[in-house]
Design brief:
By secondary structure, the protein is of the alpha/beta class. About 30% of the residues lie in helices and about 25% in strands.
């Protein structure tokens, strides 16, 4: 799976305010949405497209549309749930899976406790 690094001044600005302990909950949710929207855009920057002929008011134009391909977003519960909305806003047909982690109290290591993926991802 490719790693996409979000190295953008706006993302740094948003992240700074997310980290600020004085940020109010409503503002935090808005900032989390904004950062997740930037992540959604960056993480799909190399998504496949295909040409399509569209009729504009002036003339037909050969344009680009997203190629039909299964997309899956998998948040890590519970904090990752707030990051799903921008993906579903941009890609209404996206499948959503879930990963849950818990800490082993003896080793302090995270371990998987839940994994769910939609059958739609297999289509």
């Amino acid at each position: 799976m490719p790693v996409h690094v979000l190295d953008h001044p706006l993302a740094a600005h948003i992240l700074t305010h997310l980290r600020d302990k004085t940020t109010k909950p409503a503002t935090f949710r808005t900032l989390a949405y904004q950062l997740s929207l930037l992540l959604a855009i960056e993480s799909t920057s190399d998504i496949e497209t295909q040409e399509k002929l569209v009729e504009t008011p002036l003339e037909p134009v050969l344009a680009r549309v997203l190629a039909r391909q299964p997309l899956v977003v998998v948040p890590i519960l519970r904090a990752g749930l707030g990051m799903v909305q921008p993906f579903t806003d941009l890609f209404p047909d996206v499948s959503v899976g879930y990963v849950g982690l818990e800490r082993d109290h003896e080793t302090a290591q995270a371990r998987s406790c839940l994994l769910y993926t939609s059958d739609a991802a297999d289509e």
